[in-house]
Amino acid sequence: MAEPVRIALLGCGNVGSQVVRLLTEHADDLSARVARDLELVGVAVRDAASPRAGVPHHLLTDDAEALVSRGDIDVVIELVGGIEPARTLVRAAMAHGASVVTANKALMAADGARLHEAARESGVDLYFEAAVAGAIPLLRPLRESLVGDRVRRVMGIVNGTTNYVLDRMDTAGESFDEVLADAQRLGYAEADPTADVDGHDAAAKAAIIASLAFHSRVTADQVEVTGIRGVTSSDIASARAMHGVVKLLAVAERLDEGRISVWVGPTIIPRDHPLGSVHGAFNAVVVEADAAGQLMFYGQGAGGAPTASAVLGDVVTAARNRVQKVVGVGESSYAALAVASPGEAVTRFHLIVDVDDRPGVLAAVAGIFAENGVSIETVRQEIRGEQDAELVIVTHPAPKRSLDATVASLREAPTVRSVVSVMRVEAL
Amino acid sequence: MAEPVRIALLGCGNVGSQVVRLLTEHADDLSARVARDLELVGVAVRDAASPRAGVPHHLLTDDAEALVSRGDIDVVIELVGGIEPARTLVRAAMAHGASVVTANKALMAADGARLHEAARESGVDLYFEAAVAGAIPLLRPLRESLVGDRVRRVMGIVNGTTNYVLDRMDTAGESFDEVLADAQRLGYAEADPTADVDGHDAAAKAAIIASLAFHSRVTADQVEVTGIRGVTSSDIASARAMHGVVKLLAVAERLDEGRISVWVGPTIIPRDHPLGSVHGAFNAVVVEADAAGQLMFYGQGAGGAPTASAVLGDVVTAARNRVQKVVGVGESSYAALAVASPGEAVTRFHLIVDVDDRPGVLAAVAGIFAENGVSIETVRQEIRGEQDAELVIVTHPAPKRSLDATVASLREAPTVRSVVSVMRVEAL
After folding, report:
1. Less Cβ around it within 10 Å: N or C end of chain B?
2. Are B349 and B406 in contact (CB under 8 A)?
3. A311 to chain B: which residues are within 8 Å by CB?
4. Looking at the domain assignment, is residue B186 inside a domain?
5. Contact at 8 Å (CB) between A44 and A9?
6. Which chain B residues are closer than 8 Å to A277 by Cβ?
7. What's the gap in Å between the CA of B135 and the closest CA on chain A?
8. Domain check: are A281 and A145 in the same one?
9. Which domain range does residue A207 map to?
10. Which of B205, B247, B325, B400 is the catalytic position?
11. Given this model, what pLDDT does residue B130 score?
């Protein structure tokens, strides 16, 4: 057999160690699929002195920069995460002629366009299936299978931690704080859960999905984000009363006039919606296309082995391209659709508003909605106690901006004690 | 822009007319994605004299052979269906230098290996995403995304007609004959429903899926097939009593000793299994891989526009390869796993047996199972009337061969009036 395809790995944690395991255990299969051996020639880690199970000690190095700059690497697998030094390493790898496979959603969502540009200039591949929805093959179908169709909307559960928390709140009736503490104990949530709980992880994935689905450039900071800290047991119960369930959705949608809207937020969807039965830490993404109709992709969104499976799929593709001396399909941003500003996304909303229980309150509240151009679909009034009532309001579709203005006005109104919660409502 | 990519279409029925529509309506998008215009240069139909909406009359021809032999075609789309003349046309197209995109499951399942060989010899692409599960991107993920992983099992609902029938039997409590007649009236089932109802359509798809998933060659005639004609309302009710639901599953599974088993048959699965909630004419396929874990792909398995979406995805890929002057990933059959004989597939089974209601009958029946090496998990005895009882038996996992022998012995036994039904049980 000819020269092997030479691979360098940056980062050897949870995912990296599984990548090494698959490269070793499936070596024969991988060779057959690429028509060359895949040879791991170096593994960059923070502390090269401490041994790693399954990694020959002489492959370890703490000089990642030197590893990617050797000039004889065919494929660099970047599993460092975060923006820096990952970005510098990826760019150095490309400049030295290596194709790059990365699971780095933060980097791709922040700087994807420039990295694609750098890959094009260097004549190398840049693949990142593992950056979104772990093991689920989603980016390749979006990029290649649906390329003859027109995507209208992508709607997904792309963060396992928040789905685990919301699912537990729904099934066990526990509070956000209780479940989060438990999830941290069990390792489903990080010690610092900010990126997950506040929706930033989902927003990065939404930006990547939107870029591919709409052949446009979308960055994480263009995504309107609301996390799940504000979701209460009342919200869960209120959703249940509507035969719905609360999920943290990432949505990218084609608007009229050649624009797209991309947002992440807690959303009530019907319990019998395909996404309604996605439990625990699983991920699922629904794609709606003009001709294909509704498609769903479902699977494990995180974890060492599932993520490593997605990485290896990209590695095999990049390696085959090397062997054939071709470059795969790169970025497609020809449509160049503008991203609507955060206030423009139109959905229905569900609000819980705590008010004084006296005559005229409902009229006053309804008036505030009307003044802000938001039309109410249903109101349910529940008496909570002496002079205390709760209004559960579902609106007709309205722009987020109008809803925000309504909430601001409500907070000023003398009869309103508090706006307890605001969630979106989809497909219900 | 350079020379357009020249496309010929064979067949212009339900799918073909949608392909023409998408090629026309999405022309700008497609050009941007391929970096060339896609030009439809001929459409072969049975009667070129009768006009087709959306197809310029001068493109129509009734001489398909001449069209594919012109020598200036880049991509031939074969939507004729069936083995002949489709096979001859596809081979002629390849011999004259055209890549082929086909939705022809019968042809691929019968003769895939030789067609792949012919494509390799001619240096052209052969793509067939639309042949399995309509719009659902399944073959590409199997071929490319999971290529770094090892697939253990693929289990799917790949025939919409039978799923519609079984779903209606379950939800509306109607009989097979009632629902089938209705489905034919509504156009969900063909006037001659044999290919669907007897499982042959699903078997062809199972063969294609197994070939890709296990990098081996599997033909439709190697698939053990049972259709759904024998499924009764009692079966549906009995499944329901076990919190299960009857689905026509196509299963391809890696056995020990480097062999695979591939079968199609009515099967009881748990109602809360991901495949349990696939309703109506939808398709869904669960893939279980070593590293990726459980993945599911869900969507419309048939219909003009969904199938055309899959065809166009392949056309864009084939066209891009033309422009880049490369050939895509071809057949991968290096693993060359043997297909186990039909009797070897091991599953649990569910039987309904009509017996005389007198002492000793259960012992006699249990003895027959034991003699044939089939272990019983549960038996439920229901008294039907004077001296008439029904045994509902679920076995432990057993090879189909042993179960068949058991059923043959049961039919000989004096106390057994009839073996009313036999179904598999999975994941329950």
Report:
1. N
2. no
3. 148
4. yes
5. yes
6. 277
7. 5
8. yes
9. 139-300
10. B205
11. 96
Asked if B166 and B261 sit in the same domain, the reply is yes
Q: Is B295 on the interface with A (CB under 8 A)?
A: yes
At A1, the pLDDT band (50, 70, 90 cuts) reads: low
Cis peptide before B85 (omega within 30 of 0): yes
One domain for residues A152 and A79:
no
Q: Which residue, B308, B328, B311, is CA-closest to B102?
A: B311
Please judge whether B137 and A129 are an interchain contact, meaning their C-beta atoms are less than 8 angstroms apart: no
Q: What one-character DSSP code corresponds to residue A221? A: G
A7, A36, A147, best to mutate vs chain B, most B CBs in 10 Å: A147
pLDDT of residue A189: 87
Instruction: Tell me, yes or no, whether B333 lies in a domain.
Output: no
Tokens of B361: 């009958």
pTM of this prediction? 0.93
User: Would the CB atoms of B305 and A293 count as touching at under 8 Å?
Assistant: yes
Beta strands in A37-164, from DSSP E residues, in sequence order: 38-44, 60-61, 75-78, 99-102, 126-127, 151-157
Whether chain B has a CB inside 8 Å of the CB on A283: the answer is no
In a domain, A331, yes or no: no
Classify the C-alpha dihedral B296-B289-B137-A107 as positive or negative.
Answer: positive
Close Cβ partners of B283 (under 8 Å, ≥ 6 residues apart): B133, B134, B136, B156, B157, B158, B159, B160, B163, B298, B299, B300, B301, B302
What is the predicted pLDDT for the residue at A79?
A: 97
Output DSSP code: residue A3. -
**Tokens 């432990």 belong to residue:** B396
Whether the pLDDT of residue A304 is over 60: the answer is yes
Which residue in B75, B150, B309 has the most chain A C-beta atoms within 10 A of its own C-beta, making it the best mutation to test that interface? Answer: B309
Q: Express each pLDDT in B139-190 by its tens digit.
A: 999 988 898 899 999 999 999 999 999 999 999 999 999 999 999 998 888 8
**CB pair distance less than 8 Å for A293 and B313:** no
Q: Which of B145, B316, B332 to mutate to test the interface with A (most CBs of A within 10 A)?
A: B145
State whether residue A30 sits within 8 Å of chain B by CB: yes
Residues A313 and A292 in one domain: no
For residues B129 and B150, membership in a common domain is answered with no
A45-56 per-position pLDDT tens digit: 999 988 888 899
Residue B338 belongs to a domain = no
* Shared domain check, A283 and A151: yes
Active site residues per annotation of A: 205
Nearest residue in chain B measured CA to CA from A144: B313
Contact A135 B32 (CB under 8 A): no
Q: Are residues B89 and B183 in the same domain?
A: no
Q: Which two tokens stand for residue B375?
A: 């272990």
Look at residue A300 and tell me whether its pLDDT is greater than 70.
yes
Same domain, A123 and A15: yes
- Which of B300, B334, B357 is where one domain is finished? B300
Q: A107-151, pLDDT tens digit by residue?
A: 999 999 999 999 999 999 999 999 998 889 999 999 888 988 999
H/E stretch holding A384 reads: strand A376-385
Q: Which residues of chain B have pLDDT under 70?
A: 1
| Chain B from 210 to 229: CB within 8 A of any A CB | 215
Is some CB atom of chain A closer than 8 A to the CB atom of B335? yes
Which residue of B299, B312, B324 is in closest CB contact with A148? B312
Task: Kindly determine whether residue B294 and residue A311, on different chains, have CB atoms separated by under 8 Å.
Answer: no
pLDDT of residue A284: 97
User: Is residue A148 less than 8 Å (CB to CB) from chain B?
Assistant: yes
CB-based burial of residue A277 (10 Å sphere; 0-12 exposed, 13-18 middle, 19+ buried)? middle
- DSSP type of residue B111: H
Q: Is the pLDDT of residue A243 over 90?
A: yes
Average pLDDT over residues A400-419: 95
Among chain A residues, CA nearest to B311: A148
| B312 phi/psi in degrees, rounded to 5 | -65, -35
Task: Quote the percentage of chain A above a pLDDT of 90.
Answer: 84
